[in-house]
Inverse folding.
């Protein structure tokens, strides 16, 4: 099992979710984050005091899936989240050793 | 017209009253319900300027960790000043000192605890109860204004001691000088609704206070961006709305003088707000909400001394000058001089008050106000400004140094870092 | 002075009107534009106490998931009470019952749909249109106050049924008893602006309601900390500001009585706020914003029955006693007794109202108000308090039990957990 | 009664003034302090409707990224309209055009810069200063209302140009037609406080504007849920509270007419709010806060032209019809027609204004207002509505197309996506 | 060393923390997240515009522990967070290679 | 490739970002979190009701880097985030198997 973690632009969330449900993935967890990267931020000025806002609003999506689905998940997210503009985000994949569904105690693949 | 004497700070109030006697010989002073209705309303409006107006204007500009502490300062100062005004400060400001020499500087104690005020007492055409409460609301907002300069870094106990002592030793005497029969009113200084008494006074005290306290920890390096300007919008709007009680209420009657004061207030405020906004639009390429709000307050401040003395075209000019002047002071000069007046009380109230006081001398018109003819002169206004600045600066500094020595002015650096809401009040916004 | 009879609950209103006839024999009652101006303004101020004042005071104190449901209760109650007051409740409260015996307890139906009110009708020196609308705003805020006690756990439909029935069967009759010609006014109970009619009444109904509903799910174990006290600061400030319409407006004229009521309100409120704050500072070592706001409301409540009867030094004492008393009731006694009065309606309005009503008997002064001399006695006040408590408690309980039986009072536990905003109204704050 | 002529739009103002001369022959017009007190207060109240009222009502309904831009529009429009009203628009609206033929459509320029207004000028029983400032607040809110329709997608510079030109070329003339001596007032169109001049006018301009700008990017697909209805609750409440200045203030006096206007306003508003709420409760099974707030505004709008002409039972019916009608227009018809009137200005102000104007014709009663007898007819009202709609729609469209051609109306799609707060004003809410 | 990451219902936080301190785990990090899964959301309607709110508020808990504690941690979280209702959440376990305590520079097991 | 995840005190963010750019790391993702550990919280009291606030505001920083950079990244973060006071936070390192840049489809080292 893997977790596919993606950083995306906030307004792409619905499209990404639709793409995932389209390939049969029906669970995910979303976190509001701030990202720093190539995409540059903006400056706010309050009565002459300038504050550079370098961290831009992004969403982090975490999807736990069976290892064999990872490719499809990456493709689905990439496809849906892509605007071609700088700042579209990243996808990272890392392994998980266990998964448990709290309600039932089911584990691993059954837990997803 | 009599009613205007009460506030227009022409000769001394006492003089005015003596002078008035013949006029009233056949014509005993009588309560006017219309004037009273307007002054009851004005009192309500000026109270609303501080709570919730000023509280929100300031609260929206601080960081989220200090918002409750900031609004609490306005609220607690409202309570403390109310009680002190009743106990002693009203008397110092408006009672005649039995010693004629001292009366130039300081009122008597005969009206302490509202002594001598009864169901028949009138001030002009309104019950003295109403006059005393109306003036109370001015005594509330003036010290509350100062606290913008030391926002986010003063101990709550020190705030209470400072504002309490300042009311008694700075505000009440200066109020007496100008409106209560003291030497500035006697010298012909014009101050319709408090440009000198309220705004220059609080602006100077603010500058002194922020210099003595020193800058906020992290000033200039970490972000101190306003956490929610929606609150500041509410606050500035309520200040504007309530300011009609301040300015038109200072006519002490529901008449054409109140009417022209209202029209002037609206024109000057709008002009100053637009001026600040366009100045900023030119300089930093974006018109900001904080900018237009700040400009509006600058206009309100500057028109305050002039509201009942000038015509609307004068008000328009006063607004424009205040918009530019306060913009430069709050944004560019402060930046150059590097002091940390957190919410620009000096830049707006101090500078705006001085601009307004001087231009009152320039634009006062006897077509609007008969007394303007006698009194209006930029030099006299300048005299009033200087006297106020000197006394206010020295007295405020003394009070602050005493408090610093006895209980200290600031929380620890770690506490300031954590935020005053939690540290001082044990509360937080979710 | 006549105008005061209308509210001071001296003899019956009818008696007052009859009594007034000779006085007016030569001197027909006439509209006074100044009095009317102030009463129009006061009506606006009292409406602002509920929306947005009370809505925000309460809304800031609940958890974020219930804020919209909470403010909506105040708003919907405002609408429903307005219509019901017009349809029938004004008549029950202020019409003379054709049966003299019944008139002690319940008004007639002649003024239903504002029947008989026309362009010439006066109440004292103001149009009856204004009087009826001014009183409407009291009928709005009283049931709205109760809802603080059951915040975060009552079905919206039950809220509407409860407040609607309560207006007709509890508020309107008790209003008639005290101000409308009923037996309490006749017995000499003094209630200048609604200590008994509004505050004891709502405070007792609140206690009954929170006991019948039971505590919020998780009360005592999960955090129910106020989600944003900035909103409560706005709300409490608008309550304070609007309360001048309530108290000084209850003079029904723009005169010295309104003036002294305003001064008293300011002094008592400030004193109570500081008292609660310092009590808390001593006990838990930190002065809180919620504490000082609560103290201010306690002071406003306690001065309500006394505002036009006492001198400011009496107001100071009333404020201090209310500050301590309501602090103990809301913080320490509630904790000991373990009932869940979510926003302390009983501790502040019930206890503050009782303190104020009793101290009105103690401090009422004929120097301030001629009628105080005849009426003022702690025993008479006590009689009024007891009568109100007994009737209000029983009638409120009956109404609630009927609603419980028919449609139920509370959402399910899961719905309460999820939050009323989403569950009842399909909305949320982001 | 004279005072009502000023606003009731009966014959022309000029006609009224001429007509008034004989009546005043022995009895020179005199300032009444009570009337003046109420009109000073009303001016304050109507200003508070826009800032902070409307600013917050709208600000709470937009997405968080646009809240500062939205409230800033109301604030900046307040400033710009104030200055333009003083410079020229007051004159266009209320000065008599020297050419009698042109006077039916457009006032003169004699009152530009408040020319000719002095300390003795009266309008009815109040100083002209007060009348001119009171009218200024109407000229502020009308263009500000329109901006709800184009919320979240108009350039700030375009907003300023549009509202400025619209004030001069649309509002001021139509105001002249109805209240300033123009042809609609002359034809007997009844508009007590601005149903036609303010609400139909802004509603139609709103519809035109949102059609010309086109829908927000993502309209219908992405969530545009209101970010914080607590702010909208404050805004709607202040609109309600301030509306008493609007409606009861339009009596231009503190008398029974003001009183009945206040009572009518309260009854109609409450009825409309409950009606919308129950309609929604039936249709979507949940009564929403946004629904009840919207209904209240619909009721306020619809009662505006009728407030001083009908009895409260008429007001009740007007409220109920407006509640249903505006609900259908804002929710169901808009959905069917698919235009993006972001905050339903047309559905509420346009439709509510039309309902109110027509029903004024139906319910106006000579028992309430002598002039209703002569003027009241649904057909005459219809004539006024049509004339306003046609002129307003065409003129608004021309102005918008010119601005579109010269500087453009909308930010880029990417800017709209990022949010106007950052993009246009360089600020954000944390 | 492992990180045990759990998605739970927000009101279960205190119970979960108590359960963890009960087994001697005294550090954790909590993030507010939104979850999508079998548990369905609700619809908000504003003047006729319907917005389906499919993402429900959840909390993400991350606990770094020595490998041998993982079982106990899973049991503690499962026990405390379980209501038996749909939407109780998941537990995922993944390995970490290093841990450092910033204050002291201690590493790995000592850092926790 | 690894992800270096750090929990730090909020006001240290700018210093940490500067330290990272100083060693050539130009991308990171930040999340507002609440932390529980040795550092104790505070108590809020509202009208006598005491609520212990045990969870303190922290920031979580996630930096994806090539494996050979991990040491330098840890050093940079440690150096910048350290105050020496309790509650300075932790750094955890875990492996990732893939990385993708959504905009371009570049993978692994190129994606960072
Ligand atoms: N090395 C990194 N580690 C973790 N997150 C990163 C890293 N680099 C970028 N990100 C995240 O990805 C987002 C997009 O990256 P950015 O460089 O702006 O654009 P792009 O991915 O299109 O090149 C950033 O805002 C940040 O949240
Ligand atoms: N595949 C997944 N990857 C990541 N998070 C998931 C996944 N599936 C579910 N979740 C998270 O777990 C939460 C609960 O899942 P849900 O399916 O609603 O209920 P249950 O776990 O009781 O079956 C979701 O809200 C989401 O935050
Ligand atoms: N075992 C753990 N798992 C995950 N996060 C932890 C763990 N222990 C501590 N933390 C995080 O690190 C932060 C600091 O830890 P703390 O024990 O308070 O101080 P220090 O790291 O200086 O000893 C905590 O607030 C929490 O966010």
């Amino acid at each position: 099992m893997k977790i596919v973690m993606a950083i995306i632009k906030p307004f792409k969330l619905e499209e990404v979710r639709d793409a995932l449900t389209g390939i049969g993935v029906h669970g995910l967890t979303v976190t509001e984050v701030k990202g720093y990267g190539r995409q540059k931020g903006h400056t706010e000025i309050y009565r002459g005091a300038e504050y550079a806002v370098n961290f831009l609003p992004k969403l982090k999506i975490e999807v736990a899936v069976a290892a064999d689905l990872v490719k499809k998940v990456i493709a689905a997210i990439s496809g849906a989240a892509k605007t071609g503009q700088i700042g579209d985000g990243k996808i990272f994949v890392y392994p998980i050793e266990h998964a448990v569904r709290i309600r039932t105690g089911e584990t691993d693949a059954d837990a997803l | 017209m009599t009613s205007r004497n009460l506030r227009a700070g022409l000769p001394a109030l006492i003089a005015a009253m003596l002078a008035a006697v013949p006029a009233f010989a056949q014509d005993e002073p009588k309560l006017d319900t219309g004037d009273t209705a307007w002054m009851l309303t004005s009192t309500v409006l000026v109270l609303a300027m501080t709570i919730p107006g000023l509280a929100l204007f300031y609260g929206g500009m601080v960081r989220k960790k200090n918002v409750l502490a900031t609004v609490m300062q306005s609220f607690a100062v409202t309570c403390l000043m109310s009680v002190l005004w009743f106990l002693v400060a009203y008397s110092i400001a408006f009672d005649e000192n039995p010693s004629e020499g001292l009366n130039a500087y300081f009122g008597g104690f005969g009206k302490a605890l509202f002594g001598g005020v009864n169901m028949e007492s009138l001030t002009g055409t309104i019950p003295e109860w109403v006059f005393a409460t109306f003036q109370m609301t001015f005594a509330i907002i003036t010290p509350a204004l100062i606290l913008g300069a030391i926002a986010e870094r003063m101990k709550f106990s020190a705030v209470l001691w400072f504002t309490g002592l300042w009311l008694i030793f700075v505000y009440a005497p200066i109020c007496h000088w100008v409106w209560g029969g003291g030497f500035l009113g006697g010298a012909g200084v014009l101050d319709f609704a408090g440009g000198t008494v309220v705004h220059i006074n609080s602006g100077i005290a603010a500058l002194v206070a922020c210099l003595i306290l020193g800058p906020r920890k992290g000033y200039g390096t970490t972000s101190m961006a306003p956490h929610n300007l929606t609150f500041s919008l509410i606050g500035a709007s309520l200040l504007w709305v309530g300011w009609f009680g301040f300015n038109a209420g200072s006519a002490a009657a529901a008449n054409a003088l109140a009417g022209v004061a209202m029209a002037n207030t609206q024109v000057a405020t709008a002009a100053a707000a637009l001026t600040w906004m366009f100045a900023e639009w030119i300089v930093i390429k974006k018109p900001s909400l904080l900018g237009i709000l700040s400009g509006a307050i600058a206009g309100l401040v500057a028109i305050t001394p002039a509201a009942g003395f000038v015509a609307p075209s004068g008000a328009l000019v006063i607004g424009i000058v205040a918009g530019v002047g306060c913009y430069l002071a709050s944004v560019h000069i402060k930046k150059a001089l590097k002091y940390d007046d957190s919410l620009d009380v000096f830049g707006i109230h101090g500078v705006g008050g001085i601009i307004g006081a001087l231009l009152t001398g320039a634009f006062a018109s006897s077509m609007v106000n008969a007394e303007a003819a006698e009194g209006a002169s930029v030099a006299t206004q300048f005299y009033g400004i200087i006297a106020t600045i000197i006394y206010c600066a020295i007295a405020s500094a003394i009070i602050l140094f005493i408090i610093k020595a006895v209980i200290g002015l600031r929380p620890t650096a770690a506490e300031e870092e954590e935020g005053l809401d939690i540290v001082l009040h044990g509360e937080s916004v979710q």
Summary: Chain B has one domain: 34-425. Chain B has 18 helices and two strands. Confidence is low (pLDDT under 50) at residues 1-26 of chain B.
